[in-house]
Amino acid sequence: MGLSMTTVERVCAYITQGDRLLVFSHPYHPEAGLQVPGGTIEEGETPLAAVLREAHEETGLTDLTVRSYLGVREYDLHPYGRNGIERRHFFHLDFCGQSLATWRHFEMHPSDGSEAPIEFEFFWVRLPDEVPELIAGQGDLLASIEIR
Fold it and tell me: pLDDT tens digit string along 10-25?
């Protein structure tokens, strides 16, 4: 009898400003790799509401609008020592405000269940040539976004 696979519904946000994409690292956990904002969809929440909430919570940015829904991909968590699948809903968001070239922000309500805030370091990279490899399939739908 095999173990049942859990599926966790998540969102990923490709936040752009012109031809720049927002990515981040974990200053105290470099093994977490480079990522885009995202997180877990809460019970009763739509993927659209979740991506806007998670993008704001993780980045601190407020002038965000949804450009498009890019699709869904499933990602196997076994290579990371976890039994399950993440069903990731990818969105393209525009940032219309002003920001620094780099900044740090604390996510105060991490979806990983930890109590302590998590510090992220954000920076912009030019599309498509400066985009570094994103961890764990987070770059899967980058080619689907339209650069303005």
Answer: 999 999 999 999 999 9
- Count CB neighbours of 88 within 10 A: 23
Please state the domain extents for the chain. 7-141
Residues belonging to the chain: 148
Is the pTM of the predicted complex or chain greater than 0.85?
A: yes
Q: Residue 146: what are its φ and ψ, rounded to 5°?
A: -95, 125
Kindly state the tokens that stand for 28.
Answer: 């105290």
7-141: CATH topology: Nucleoside Triphosphate Pyrophosphohydrolase (3.90.79)
DSSP helix/strand/coil, 75 = strand
pLDDT digits (tens, 9 = 90+) for 17-67: 999 999 999 998 899 999 999 999 999 999 999 999 999 999 999 999 999
Tell me whether residue 12 is exposed, middle or buried, using C-beta atoms within 10 angstroms of its C-beta: 0 to 12, 13 to 18, 19 or more.
buried
Amino acid at position 19, single letter: D
Query: Which residues face 35 on adjacent strands?
Result: 24
Question: Residue 114 in contact with residue 3, Cβ under 8 Å?
Answer: no
